Amino acid sequence: MAGKKIIDKRKVFYALFAAVAYLVITIVFLNNPVFPQTWLLYVGNVLFGIIVAIYLFAYSNKTNHKASAYSMLKAGHIVTTMGILVSVVVIACIVLFWKEHFANTPPQIRPDENHGLVFILFLDAIVGNASAGAFVAIIFPFALTKMQKGGAEPSGDLK
């Protein structure tokens, strides 16, 4: 394992792509940060998960569908973790440099009283994206692998 890189350009590209997709939806939410619009953040989580799934499809195709489920599981979690880190850093920058925008939030999520909006943003960026990315990273490797170690060949019409 001495020659293998854990992080390659493709993982970084898909992690950035997933983070940008999530952040675009987050910025749309921040343009009108009322509590009933928080569903937009979940749309961002779904987009994040879809892009991790696209990465896993590309990873599987790159290896001609011979990648082990474990290597795909590990790759999916690496992309998810890198995407979350980028999302959190960008949200921290937004919170630090866009302070005047947070003063107009509704009382339920007012930042000067309980930091509600900031809490919602960070919680969704971490927990929401981790849930979406981990779900995809756990389900898709087993669905995309042609044959697991020790498994039997498909019989009948399944070949």
Descriptive key words:
159 residues, mainly alpha, elongated
What does this structure look like?
The protein has 159 residues and is mainly alpha-helical. The chain has one domain. Helices cover 71% and strands 0% of the residues.
Q: Brief description of this entry?
A:
It contains 6 helices and no strands.
Calculate Rg over CA atoms.
19 Å
Which regions have little confidence, pLDDT < 50, spanning 5+ residues? none
What about the largest sheet?
A: none
Which outline best applies? elongated
Strand content: under 5%
Average pLDDT over all residues = 83
Q: Which structural class is indicated by helix and strand composition? A: mainly alpha
- Helix percentage: over 70%
Number of domains: 1
- The total count of strands amounts to 0
Elements, N to C (H/E): HHHHHH
Helices, by number, come to 6
> In whole angstroms, how far apart are the ends?
34 Å
SSE topology:
Layout: H1 9-31, H2 39-62, H3 69-97, H4 99-102, H5 111-114, H6 116-144
Helix pairs in contact: 1-2, 1-3, 2-3, 2-6, 3-6
